[in-house]
Amino acid sequence: MDLVEQYHALNRPEHPVCSVCVANYNGAAMLDDCLGSVLSQLGDVSIEIIVHDDASTDDSVNLLLARYPSVELLASRENVGFCKANNRMVSHARGKYVLLLNNDAALHPDAILTLVEVAGLQSPGGILTMPQYDWETDKLVDRGCLLDPFYNPVPNLDQDRREVAMVIGACFWVARDLWNDLGGFPEWLESIGEDMYLCCVARLRGRPVHVTRTSGYRHRQGVSFGGNRVNRGKLSTTLRRRRLSERNKTRVMVICTPTWLVWPLLAVHMAELVLEGIAVTLSRRDRRVWREVYRPTLKSVLSGTLELRQRRRGQQAQRQATLRGYLHAFTWFPHKLRLLFRHGVPSIR
């Protein structure tokens, strides 16, 4: 078992309202912005800050020890990934609520006060996020996301829409008791899609996923995992990100889509992936795209059918939402086609 060194913080609040959990890997250059935004929050809300350092090779640990004595630092000896890092922090947290915050993000000054107020109005309690703004341009990126039929996230830009299908893990607010009931981030996904999975599971169980109308956070999109943003009109990503994204979205689709509709949807999705993989591979003239993205995705679904069915039975047995209620936050035009028309074939490196 991986050993974790715990550096106990000074002046840690005894009964915090919120535990801010920051997963860090080689983020020394961004931590001042991230933690500074938390420490400068407005309002009288008791906050504890927990940082899990995932075996960074930069100066992150020394920086945290020297500059942030009030932060609870969990320094891992091995790189364990985003899901396990967040699960460790939440199991260590004491707040009524937890806010998962990326190390490449920074909160608006009234963010936590806003989240506490809105969470108090949720009935039943659910998952929350805030409007996301691009770090460099300060333009609105999304107000949470809808999902298309193939579980591709579709940015919500409607200021009047409160209910969304999912929120990203860069700024993810949830009551700690609900996190534990839902089971936390699924470590079998490795990375990418864990936020989608937990939001879909919550909505299956009749729990809302909402975005606040005010406040927000700034985010350096794609810095922590590469890609996932538009540069000069072109969408850029990486082979690893695309592989994990395609595989994990498909897994979430199989596990969470209610009723028998999942099976024809999966068949259409698999055919779409084959055609897409061939088209992108040929357009990029790079066999690695098929070999490292699409073939592993198709293989993982076909070889893991039994395991996916078992996970599906477990989640569907606890479903409280109606099919209509679950699909209310979906949009029916495939998002990849919209991106293709707008930005062309993505750059994959």
TrEMBL record:
Keywords: Glycosyltransferase, Transferase
Annotated TM spans: none
Coiled coil: none
Domain (Glycosyltransferase 2-like) ranges: 19-178
MF GO annotations: glycosyltransferase activity
PANTHER family: GALACTOFURANOSYLTRANSFERASE GLFT2, RHAMNOSYLTRANSFERASE WBBL
Protein family according to the UniProt entry: Belongs to the glycosyltransferase 2 family.
Protein name: Glycosyl transferase
Organism: Rhodanobacter lindaniclasticus
Lineage, uppermost ranks: Bacteria, Pseudomonadati, Pseudomonadota, Gammaproteobacteria, Lysobacterales
